[in-house]
Write a structure and sequence with these properties.
Oligomer: single chain
Radius of gyration: 20 Å
Distance between the termini: 18 Å
Number of helices: 2
Largest sheet: 5 strands, antiparallel
Strand content: over 45%
Helix content: under 10%
Structural class: mainly beta
Shape: globular
């Protein structure tokens, strides 16, 4: 049964599409799907090569994933039971995202490295960036802005580029990465390396000029997020202050309403999952409380559930919970590794 069929069937039953994930339950890593209630497990790929990091298109009709061959990673496309090499060749491919209308993919190639853009009709790839790209992180819902980061000397920071290949602007000149634009297109969050830690920052984004807005420290935007204080000087971005024990932040994402930021704090066995509500004065809520690693949280398309990975029994399993951490349910239960969830 193809991806079109199981998407329609599962959505009617559970109100969420199936979760797509990677698993080595058949000896090597393949791509699987499962409903959010743990039913209807299906294997989608069958290969002796490892296949992992699936990403579902926004129209829920296609999946791209990585396949590792001879130490190199290539992107493959799964479209209605047909699996084709999407981007391969002699260069390692990584960090890739779908366009908002599911017709293009932006990705990083180690050749350079640079960000490339390719249509799903497999036309010739277009080199999108003029500066070395480390990570392509987000694509605005209006299709106008692709956000990426660079860690190359003299180019460090976060950039935005129009997919037509114009207006490449450097937004942040810090050692920053993982930019994520809110679904409403107004706010940009990103991570910054500072003093051995990784911190969470936020800014207002101006889509018309492909730039960050200058705001005053005592402006309404600033006061809503950080309280009424400050000198009134203009700033472009601001660190979201979190408790001292919330450090090494990763896996950041917005909820569909642009109100909450989902993230992981900590390293390996100490990692836990949190949300910060920017609509409620940056209220922090811890969602998981385990002495094991909890990682890779992803929102369901309607924002009513979060899928994540936990290592409760030593190997990685897929769980689902509510946005407040309630009703945590294990939906895979085996002695293998299940990870890389996506809706």
């Amino acid at each position: 049964m193809g991806i079109f069929s199981f998407s329609a069937c599962s959505t009617a039953i559970s109100k969420e599409p199936p979760i797509i994930f990677s698993s080595n339950q058949n000896g090597n890593y393949d791509i699987f799907s499962i409903d959010s209630d743990g039913k209807n497990l299906k294997q989608l790929t069958y290969d002796f090569q490892d296949e992992f990091e699936p990403k579902v298109s926004s129209n829920r009709e296609k999946i791209i994933f990585l396949k590792k061959i001879d130490g190199r990673k290539s992107i493959y496309l799964l479209d209605n039971n047909s699996i084709d090499l999407f981007v391969g060749g002699p260069y390692d491919l990584s960090s890739y995202i779908w366009s908002p209308v599911s017709d293009q993919i932006a990705y990083v190639s180690e050749f350079g490295p640079y960000i490339y853009l390719m249509s799903i009709d497999e036309s010739e790839p277009l080199q999108l960036t003029s500066v070395p790209g480390f990570e392509v992180s987000d694509w605005s819902l209006d299709g106008k802005s692709i956000f990426f980061s660079s860690k190359s000397k003299d180019f460090e920071g976060i950039y935005v580029r129009n997919p037509d290949g114009v207006n490449e602007n450097r937004l942040i000149d810090l050692v920053a990465f993982s930019p994520k634009l809110s679904p409403d297109g107004d706010k940009l969050i990103f991570l910054v390396h500072e003093e051995g830690l990784i911190s969470l920052y936020i800014a207002e984004y101006y889509s018309e000029n492909f730039s960050l807005k200058l705001v005053k420290e005592n402006s309404k935007w600033y006061n809503n997020l950080f309280g009424i204080f400050g000198s009134g000087q203009k700033i472009k971005y601001k660190k979201i202050e979190l408790p001292d024990d919330i450090v090494h932040i990763s896996n950041v994402s917005w909820d569909p309403k642009s109100e909450k930021i989902l993230f992981v704090s900590g390293l390996e066995k100490e990692s836990e999952i949190y949300v910060v509500n920017i609509k409620k004065n940056n209220q922090i809520l811890r969602l998981t409380r385990n002495n094991v690693r909890d990682d890779q949280p992803v929102w369901s398309p309607n924002g009513r559930k979060i899928a994540f990975v936990s290592y409760l029994d030593g190997d990685s399993e897929i769980f689902v919970m509510r946005p407040d951490g309630a009703e945590q349910n294990r939906i895979t239960n085996n002695e293998y590794d299940d990870f890389d969830p996506d809706w």
